[in-house]
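Lecture notes, continued. The same structure-token format from the folding unit now serves as the input rather than the output. Read the line below as a description of shape only.
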């Protein structure tokens, strides 16, 4: 299953079993700015996929309740696969960073452009840092926890990326110096 919407929806169901319309509302609130739905019907499509894969199931209730508000909960397989998917995000992030580095390396022949891209990347990191939720968010429950964890993850990730930008600048300058044409009569 490749759709991040499906995995995000499964996460919401794991957090609190619910019915489709409530899940759509929670989805918009929880993933605002990070992930969006093309329409509310996307939730129904995702629920069908999750059900077919055995990752969620309808929660029992009266026949009438099942028709009007089918509630969904995660299965044991859903919990296990969701955990595996979360761990796989480390590899996906590594691939994205490797792609960034490889593309930056492609600019090594034009050191000025490489430096400009590094400057822009650094500014984007700083902007992400300034937009991060505050560590002092004392909102109770899951909302506050997610906010605090998100903020701290952003702060630590950005700090590492800013250190990497400095390292990359030094490496790019060193490469540019070794590739600079030598002046006639200058040092060999």
């Amino acid at each position: 299953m490749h759709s991040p919407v499906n995995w995000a929806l499964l996460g919401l169901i794991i957090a609190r079993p619910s019915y489709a319309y409530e899940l759509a509302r929670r989805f918009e609130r929880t993933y605002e700015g990070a992930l969006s739905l093309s329409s509310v019907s996307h939730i129904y499509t995702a629920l069908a996929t999750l059900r077919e894969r055995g990752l969620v199931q309808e929660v029992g209730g009266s026949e009438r309740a099942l028709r009007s508000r089918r509630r969904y909960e995660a299965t044991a397989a859903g919990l296990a696969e969701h955990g595996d998917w979360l761990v796989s995000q480390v590899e996906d992030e590594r691939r994205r960073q490797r792609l960034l580095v490889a593309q930056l390396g492609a600019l090594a022949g034009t050191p000025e452009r490489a430096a400009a891209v590094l400057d822009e990347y650094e500014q984007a990191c700083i902007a992400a840092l300034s937009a991060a939720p505050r560590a002092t968010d004392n909102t109770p429950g899951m909302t506050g926890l997610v906010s605090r964890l998100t903020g701290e993850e952003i702060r630590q990730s950005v700090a590492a990326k800013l250190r990497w930008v400095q390292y990359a600048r030094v490496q790019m300058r060193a490469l540019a110096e070794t590739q600079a044409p030598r002046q006639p009569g200058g040092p060999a």
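Point for the exam: The mean pLDDT is 87.
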